[in-house]
## 1
Amino acid sequence: MKKAIFALFLCACLAISGVASADNDARDYIPAPAGTILSLLYYFHVSGDSMHTNGNETAKINFTENLGMWREVFFFNLGPFIADAQLVVPFGNASLDIPGAGVYGMSSSGISDPMILGTIWFVNRPQSKTWLGFSPYFFLPVGNYSDSQTVNMGSNRWAFREELVFTQGFEVIPNHNAYFEVTVGGDFFTDNTDYIGGTKLGQDPIFNLESHLSYDLTKDWWISADFYSHWGGRQSVDSYDVENSKVNSQTVGGTLAYNLSPSWQILFQYKGDVAVQNGIPAQTFQTRLCYITDFGKLFK
């Protein structure tokens, strides 16, 4: 019984750390002019009621996460290219109960691992609505973490994401554009040398595929259909492979965005896992508020 509960714990840790992943929203990779600052505030509500192992439901659980994120983006010219620099700080709380295993009250709150990243657009052709951007991410291991807790906001390890994104827009009818975006990338991890009970957690890279198709309903409203897929990431504890720890998930969703004014935008998104090999199939509701300003006008 203890072995089964420990296996559930490992799957839970894998799933919860993935909830705060750096998945994109539609049109994130359409760059703003140099000198633009984006200030964004996110809220995510994530929930799940079952645990899957090797594609099959193995336990009924109660999982909830309420996550906020503060994000700052600054666009600038880098030689002949447009680029940006970003800081993302996630925070919130998560809780997990596994009633069938007699395990209750696993929870954590506080700061999750902040992200520092930047993007450089090697192709930036607004006239033809064509962009190609590359982003390196750095996940800083400073989030709230304890080796005595199964549920943690932080991961106690360095992580890195490399991401390449292609965006192509089309004018469907006058003043109504559609945009197709595809993202490929990978997440890479150092070891967590202070895992549960003082063990060492290792993890193989996780590979990511993401796509969005968005359309302008009016000059102020747009919608998108969203797809996310993650696979790989087998875990090991003290160099022993954890059985059924590989990630293999597909997620679909939809987004609605509205420009409140030239400076303000609000976005709503729902997405749900449609296939999860190992972990917690979850559904996520997101709200995002964005404020846009010109750095050059701040001092006038």
Note: The CA atoms of residues 125 and 161 lie 25 Å apart.
## 2
Amino acid sequence: MSKREPGYCLHKPSGQAYVNLGGKVIYLGEYDGPESHKAYNKIKSEWLVNRHSSKFRRTGLVTMAELFLAYLDHAEPYYGTDSTELANLKLAIKSVASLYSELSTADFGPLEFETVRNYWVTKQSGKRGNRTCSRQYCNVQMKRLVRIVKFGVAKGLVPPSVHQVLKCIDPLKRGRGSSPESAGVLPVTRTDVEATVRFLTPVVADMVRVQLLLGCRPGELVQLTPGMIDRSGDVWTITIVEHKTAYRGKARVIYAGPQVQAILLPYLLRGADDCLFSPVESEQQRRSAQHAARKTSMSCGNKPGSNIVNRERKKEPGLAFTSGTYARSIKAACLRAKVAAWAPNRLRHTRATEIRSQFGLEAASSVLGHSEIGVTQIYALADQERAVQVAKQIG
């Protein structure tokens, strides 16, 4: 959300300068005098840092809705408008706002917190409402709510006691409530991947192949540019600047072997900072495939570019994929392939499991970029076939 700077105004009857901050008028002293300009610059600086502060409000009470607006001002540039985290934050905010938007932040206590959590427990997720939210999902969303309240405390919008009380509420325990357990993220089978790829455009199909070979995250894949790739050695090195653990100061380097190199080579003929995989190219390929498969004779119906109806597209394809658009392309292809829908992050789990089976857990940890092997065990399933063979011999 943009912050428009408050104006330095003249109050003609009194000859004073003033500034209007969200309906609250603050007088600054003699118009065009040095003291009024000094006061204006000070107030403007404070307002730009935290325009939702009670100092700039007509009343001292801050509602939950105003807290959420202040947090979104912070979260949108911090996480990025296309990030999954921002989308999940908005879902959490939407639920609380539907119940307590007009409630003062000072009155949001344990009862309200547990009411919101119960809303998540009983809420039907999915377009058809055929399943309830899992226990893990409820707990994660409530953690996000506590994080928003903590932000409000730092900005002077929420009393510190509210955050202290909410931290004392235990999360939902396994087997202690009605919430179902999440099945977790499992690897997607090679059979399902191959069936899905047949219904993807060549660009998106190559994205799937590259991600499966590299074991990278979807967010890392969509941001790849030629400038990130060092092609001086037999094995290319790809340095990712913006990644999940970049804020911790950790580097993320991905190694691309011959198979990945063969796929990426045609995409390197562009600017150093241009994304390798372009939605514009993908859309052109989709339209070309539709045209090639048309059954109507060219002498009948519309020809390419001849449609006289001027219809504006809701959104033109951009120059770079996002994790969301990439996932939606795969989901649409799954429907056409008549396989169970899978998300691109499952390709990372598939690759981790394959590497662990062939080269061991440490190798899988290195490829995935994990600093702790315990994290890799979440991604890479144990080699069950090997365990079965051991049981047959010595069990």
Note: The first helix runs from residue 34 to 49.
